[in-house]
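Researcher: Sit down with what I've pasted below and flag anything odd:
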Amino acid sequence: MNQETNLNALKARFRGYFPVVIDVETAGFNAKADALLEICAITLKMDEEGWLQPDKIIHFHVAPFQGANLVTEALKFNGIRDPFSPLRGAIDERDALKKIFKFIQKEQKAQDCQRSIMVAHNANFDHSFVMAAAKRSQLKRNPFHPFATFDTAALSGLAFGQTVLAKACKIAGIVFDTNEAHSALYDTRRTAELFCGIVNKWKKLGGWPVVSADDHFVQTPTK
């Protein structure tokens, strides 16, 4: 491939990392004690001209793990009135993560990336729940970086002066229905659009590809 094509590859844009957009709905704020109730993941891709866009999606409702805390206020907030209702179609936490990790690893390999990195709004929250659930489930092949993330709350604060997902989407020209919010499926889709919008905005402004003083494209080597 020529230099321009290399720079338009996903692996070149994020130093070998494969960005995956994640959103979780939970029964509280304590990742070690409160139940993970819903999770969605969306992979991303670059087109031939280097524009980032959402790609594939995987989504599960999750049954509370044995002994999990269920905070009433959290359930009211996300609208999951009965986490044990069979109508949710929820699956075991371990099964959900195992399927998601396998899906991500396959897509990561297809993009020739070396490790996945989580993209999320207020990413520390989602990252902590995924990591805690993976540890509980004793899943050793976790594709995500153990601590690094791309946080769209911080990025949208820089790009649009807003850190709330709904407000950042509005400024970015992304339709956001507050009646659909706090569903992992809906919020992940909007977060993916927001992240792609920010990355593409930076490209439009001339921030990518990075050009050095002698006008040569700079590619950071991966580790």
Summary: Residues 1-5 have pLDDT under 50 and may be disordered. The beta strands are 17-26, 36-46, 52-61, 115-120, 144-151.
